[in-house]
Amino acid sequence: MVHLPNSIKEKARDIKLVVFDVDGVLTDGTLSYSESGEEVKHFNVKDGVGIKLLNTYDIVTAVISAKDSAPLRKRIADLDIPHFYPACKDKWEKLSELMNELWVEPNEVCYVGDDVIDLKVMKRIGLSITPADGFWLVKEHSDLITDAAGGKGVAREVADIVLGSRMPLEEAYIKAMLPEFEKTINI
What we know:
Keywords: Hydrolase, Lipopolysaccharide biosynthesis, Magnesium, Metal-binding. This protein is of the alpha/beta class and 187 residues long.
């Protein structure tokens, strides 16, 4: 992770809710199908550690996706992500409902998206992040572009940014080194 400007650190310090898109963020965006036509998705274990760390430090995580699939539902269950909204047609409407439910203000939300469907949300929240290979227009409207490409550790990098704004990362990772950390979910 490169050195972050103070303005990004300040925004990250206020974050109480981190919301992830799926295809192009938690995956590389590739659509693969088995011989029987079942969708296959590839997720990065580093992202699982990042999401788990956020939850461990009481930073709420959510996934809002335009698509739905059995592999995605399995991954969400494995990571015990508390707020999951698949097949969502209006991400801003869903996020607004979630913010009201959690009593979270827009400036306390970090949203990670990669394509134009995410712009409506990204323009209205506190910290907008896109992967290194996010769509060019999304990059223009993002507060930060990760070093990682979609599906290659974006969520872990986001967790490092948010947690690193509050404490030294070495301190944050102490909890990840405890035996019970991996036992609580399938990272």
